[in-house]
Amino acid sequence: MIALDTNVLVRFLVQDDPQQTAQANAIFADLTAESPAWLCREVLAELVWVLERAYRLPRADIAGAIDGLLAAQEVVVESADRVGLAVERYRQGGAGFSDHLIALAARDAGCRATLTFDRQAVARAGMTMVPELA
């Protein structure tokens, strides 16, 4: 198994740099279910950020790309069940993908709340607004 960094994944998905795209495609062509690529949650959070900010892709397209990675037998996604739930919530709008990952990880860790200043994360990811000081 090999781990992939965000930039390799971006080149494979976006296909916008001829040389790096060819290299990324070659890496993916060599992957098998017996010798897969491993993607950590941090890479996926970065991937979503890059695709939103640099490429201005819509949520539906980004969510579809992550769905494809989750479904691929040649790819192992860290905490795939949680990533799948986070991408489904992200697809619905509001809070960002990383907010959903954070809230789910905190819940899994047994935290009673995830404090934030982000109103979208409160409304859509189930986080808790930092209390006002008296």
Describe this structure in words.
The protein is mainly alpha-helical. It has seven helices and five strands; from the N terminus they run βααβααβααβαβ. The protein has helices spanning 6-14, 18-30, 41-53, 59-71, 80-91, 97-108, 119-125; strands at 2-3, 37-39, 75-77, 115-116, 128-129. The strands form two sheets. Strands 1-2-3 form a three-stranded parallel beta sheet. It has a two-stranded parallel sheet with strand order 4-5. Strand 4, helix 7 (119-125) and strand 5 form a beta-alpha-beta unit. Helix 1 crosses helix 2 (18-30), helix 1 crosses helix 3 (41-53) and helix 5 (80-91) crosses helix 6. The N and C termini lie far apart (53 Å). The relative contact order is 0.12.
Mean pLDDT: 94
- What is the total tally of β strands? 5
List the secondary-structure elements in sequence, H or E. EHHEHHEHHEHE
Number of helices: 7
Instruction: Give the C-alpha Rg.
Output: 16 Å
Residue share in β-strands: 5-15%
Helix-residue proportion = 55-70%
Write out the strand line-up for the largest beta sheet, numbering strands in chain order: 1-2-3
Taking the alpha carbons of the first and last residues, their distance comes to 53 Å
General shape: elongated
Structural class designation: mainly alpha
pLDDT < 50 runs, ≥5 residues = none
Largest sheet at a glance? 3 strands, parallel
